[in-house]
Amino acid sequence: MAQLKVISYNVNGIRSALSKGLAEWLKQENPDVLCLQEIKVSRPDFDPAPFEALGYHTFIFPAEKKGYSGVAIFSKIKPDCVVEGTGNKTYDAEGRNLRIDIGVSIMSAYFPSGTTGDERQEVKMNYLDFFFDYIHDLQKTRSKILVCGDYNICHREIDIHNPVSNKDASGFKPEERAWMEKYFNSGFIDTFRFFHPQQAHEYSWWSFRANSRANNKGWRIDYIAATKNLEKKLVSATMLQQVKHSDHCPVVCLLAL
């Protein structure tokens, strides 16, 4: 049976990640679809050649602000359709959502962070409300969806190294976690937790401070979420914590086609 391998990865700057061996790793890992977040590159400065050499069709959706945000999808399967953004000018200006349709719809999403203060936290909460409605509306026409990306939220206590001291931190606030609970109860599957319901100390992001990665003091904020109708197609889901081109690690999902 044919399988579809999808990887989602916040690279914290695609040019920086390339300088640390991203292309060589990609050749070895060989996903069918790679969703990237925080590419931090404008269209004129993006060089698709290293990815095209590996057989990928490349699509990027940068932020208007230089060196900020932006998402990409590289696919070995030529899409029927590519959709940049969500139609919301505010979020689209920040380069947060990109979708390809290859039978199943695959979105690379970079959810706002609220770590810089109350104003951005409000933007984040507004985005969450908007996105919930948007993705469920999309399901009316695209029933099978993978939403891959950096959600900037830990869902449960098991997803963060110190839930007590971080209980009011952006990314683990009660209202953010409540949104994740609502999302995963509304017809979306957290693919990693589907296969590893109780596995602790599994994180996808570590602060650059205080040797956090070496001590595995991390947060699980990167997800591949699948619509419920793909449940029987799910084969496996993992996180590649040994891969280090970024302060995040790649997350992987394998589907049977």
Summarize the amount of helix as a percent range: 10-25%
The H-and-E topology, N to C, reads as EHHEHEEEHEEHEHEHEEEEE
Tally of domains? 1
Distance between the termini: 7 Å
Sheet-strand content, in percent, reads 25-35%
The CATH C-level name is Alpha Beta
| CATH third-tier fold name | Deoxyribonuclease I, Chain A
Low-confidence stretches: none
Q: What coarse outline follows from CA principal-axis ratios?
A: globular
Strand order of the largest sheet: 3-4-2-1-14-13
Mean pLDDT, as a whole number?
A: 97
> Could you give the count of β-strands?
14
Would you mind describing this structure in some detail?
With 257 residues, the chain is of the alpha+beta class. The protein has helices at residues 14-19, 22-29, 49-52, 89-92, 118-138, 174-184, 191-195; strands spanning 3-10, 33-37, 57-61, 71-75, 81-84, 97-102, 104-110, 145-150, 188-190, 205-206, 218-219, 222-227, 234-239, 251-256. It has one domain (3-256): Endonuclease/exonuclease/phosphatase (Deoxyribonuclease I, Chain A), CATH 3.60.10.10. The strands form three sheets. It has a six-stranded mixed β-sheet with strand order 3-4-2-1-14-13. The longest helix has 21 residues, at 118-138. It starts with a strand and ends with a strand.
